[in-house]
Structures are given as structure tokens and as C-alpha cells.
Model the fold of this input.
Amino acid sequence: MKEADQVQHIVDHFFRHESGKMVAVLTRIFGTHNLEMVEDVVQEAFLQAMRTWRMNQLPDNPSGWLMQVARNRAIDIIRRQQLFHHYSQEVAGALLQETEQTVEQFFHETEIADSQLRMIFACCHPALKEEDQVALTLKTVSGFGVTEIARALMTNEAVIQKRLYRAKQYLKENTIALEIPAGNELTKRLHMVYTVLYLLFNEGYNSVKADELIRKDLCAEAMRLALLLAEHRSGKRPATFALLALMCLQASRFESRIDENNSIILLQHQDRNTWNKDLIQRGYFFLNLSSQGDELTIYHLESAIAAEHAMAASFEATNWKRMLKLYNLLLEQKRTPMVLLNRAIVLAQLQKAPQAIQEIWQIPNIENLLKSHYIFSAVLVDLYRQTGDEQHARKYLQQAYTMTTSLAEKKLIAGKLAANS
Amino acid sequence: MKEFMFIFKGATQQYDFSPEEMQQHMHSWFSWVDDLKAKKIYLAGEALSPAGGKTVQGAKLLVTDGPFAESKELVGGFISIRAASIDEAVEIAKGCPDLQLDGAVEVREIMKLNNEESQP
Done:
């Protein structure tokens, strides 16, 4: 038993991370059709831990303690279902011993990591909707509660409950195995996982509406899972490293994007000295690892773009020519309005504002995008201003202001309106 | 100085905690108890298992399973502390993190034979 001053050994989010491990191991043992029961077992283990530990009786090895509770409970459940009393004592004893050994092997450190990866793969099963994949991953792999997921994804608890129910129901009815797909299937599944992790990260990185604490949690969690992937023999791939590089480089600017009034600071106005150098270095490290092989994924391109920003001494000093090449390559794989818009911004930096405006108007469905996303109007404002067309600039500035619901974004636009009136 | 026992009921019988909430609750307890220790008024404390208990009753030594109290009434543990009066003990009890989870703290004075103040 340890004294209270040892408390610091329980690191932030320890319960969350342990929950992910325990759910993965127990689901490996009991199958995805028993996920509900597994979650109850884990919940009970945490309650037991909380009740005893809070009285300052912290075990020497908290993680081991929790795993022990899970292991004992697993053996207990199997023992009850196997009805050993149907056999002679000798056979029952042998069967029980075998059960214990079978269960035991799943609790080895490498098997735990393996089970976690399998769990991620199951959560990202291609038959599930993307929003269900995200909710299920956060619940089972990341140990988030329903309320926390709802807060992070800015929706209500009923919606999250529904998504979780739907996802679990699918796993159950189709007895989806906790497995690591082989060959080509593995590559395909990994890409589904990348999508979900990148979505998680972006939810945290971009949603200014959610509170800062939960946003950071989401980013950190996405990075933790990406790292888990990168450390496993099945996930140790250039594309995984590229995704990690991208996350590190983006996260390096996390603190620099919002000022003390909770207003967004655009890239060109950010104080580059406040970028997290440690994360940038880690980003470069993974970027380097990602360059092996001949696969060029969107994560390779996007991390290369993020690295260009990180390397530039100032916004003006950015290598815009190289940036344009990267965006051209990215367009071949990811022809989305956002990529087209960002490419237009690069064009404008290369003194091609009129062409940039033209290209924005050629984005498919641009009329609707202008009505639904303030950022398109906001960029048009800057571009029209560059060409000296103040009339159009003001028109879209007004439009951007009325459109955004985010306070931080409103402040940003109000600042621009004031500066130019 | 008198001694008091705090008996904790309910709170940890809820099932809808998230892991993060449980960890936060635990940390609140750590700092509460640490604070009592720093003030040198904490004496002892134990947690009680919510399951597997038995009750022995009456001259016939009747043994039953349980207690099967309402979960709100189930005793989850106790600590003993030192305080000058019941009012002071109550003030200390108000800092218990269980109260935020709709739990209850029963505050009782520990009777001492050789303590003048405890005698009738």
C-alpha cells in the first residue's frame, strides 16, 4: 500500500486508457457479441478501484491491479458457464486449469496491445457508418463516456446512444471477430482507421465551439491511437507515420491559433515562436519515416504541406511554389472544396489572385457552399481585396459575418470589418 | 478535542460514471483526505466491499445474506477524524466529494470512556 503522496503516479486519463485495454482484452476473450457484458465487467472493476483507492489505498501497480480484477472476473464467468460440476473432480480441475491458462495468455503486455489494435479494427469495420465508427471507437477503445463523446462531437447524448447501439448491434448480429485482416484487406482496413483517427483529430482541432479541454483530449487521443498503430507490426507503415507526422505538425500550432479573447488567429498572424517545437521535431521524425516505400497517401501530402508551414520563417517566406505542387498532387487524390479553396489561397500568394477567384467560382456547388460555410466567403473577401475590388470584398464580408455561429469566428470577421471601414 | 466518525452512504453505487469521472472523483478524495492529514485531524479510514456481506442476527444467530439496503443507504466506508465539536465536524464533512454525487455523510461522535465531554 502506498501513501497519499504517491498519488501523482496515477497519470492523467489513466482510467480511460486502462478502460480501453480492459475492454479490448475481455472482448477478445468473450467476443464482440458480448461487448455489453464486457463493458459492465470493466465498469464494475473501476467502481471497485475507486471505492478502495480513494481511501488512500493505492496499489503498487494500479494497472496490474485492475487487470487482475478483470482476469479473475473473466475466469469466474467462464467457470460458471462451463458447469464443471457435470464432470468428475479430476476432469473439472483439469478443465479449469486450462481455462485459466487460456485466459491468462491474453493478459500479456504484447497481447494487450494486439487486442487493442483488433478492437480498433472492429470499431472501424467497413459496414459501419463513419459516425458510428467514431462513436464506438471513442467509447470502447478510448474509454470516453457518452456525455464526453456528445460534448466532443457537439451533439446530444441521445444521438450518441443511438449510434453506439446501432454499431454494437451490428457487431453482435454479424458476430464480427476481433481479428487483424490479412494482405490487401489489412491495407484497406488501415485506411478506414486512418480516416476515423483523422476525423477524431480534426474534431478536436477545428471545432472552436467545443470547450478547449475536450478538444485537446480528442487531439491527444487521436495521436495516442495513431502511435499505438505505429508501434504494432501490422500498423507500422509509411502511411501511418505520415498520419502521425501530420497530427504532430498540426498540434504544434494548437496553442497559437486562439488569442486570449478566444478569437481565431489566422496562420499569417500567428506568432511562430509559440509553435510547439517539440511536436514539430516529432513531426519531422515521423515525416522522415513516412518517406519509405512508394505509397503516396493524402497524409503524406498533407503532412508535407504542414511541414512547409513549420519550416517557413514567416508566412511570406513560405515556399509557395512548392506548396502549389503539393496541392496539385493532393487534388488528384482528394478533390474536396476545402482543398480547392486552400489551393486558391496558395495561388493568391503567388500573385495570381484573379485566377484564384476564378477557381473558387469553379468549385462544384460553390453557391451552396457560400451559403453554408463562412470560410468560403471569408477567403473571397481577402482575394477581392487583393485585386482592389472593394465592392465585392465588402459584400462577402457581410455574408461571412451573418453566417458563422461561432463566436471566435464572428470576432475575427468583426475585426476585419472594423479595420476596413 | 473529540473524535468523530464519518460514515459514507450512496455515491459510489451509481453505475453511469465514465472512467474519467471516476478518476476525477478519486482525485477529489485524495486531495480531501490529504488536506485532513495535513491539518493532522485525520485518524483512520476504511472502504467496505459492497458485495458478499452477511448479517448475523439475534440470539438464534440467524445468518442472512446482505445487507440488502437501498443503494442510497449502503455504507461504502468510514473515516475517523478529530474535531472540537459536532458543528466543526459537520463543516469538515461538507468537503466530502461524495456529496457532489448525491451521496450522504453521517457524522457521529465516537464515545470515549475516559473523555469527560463524552460522559452523560
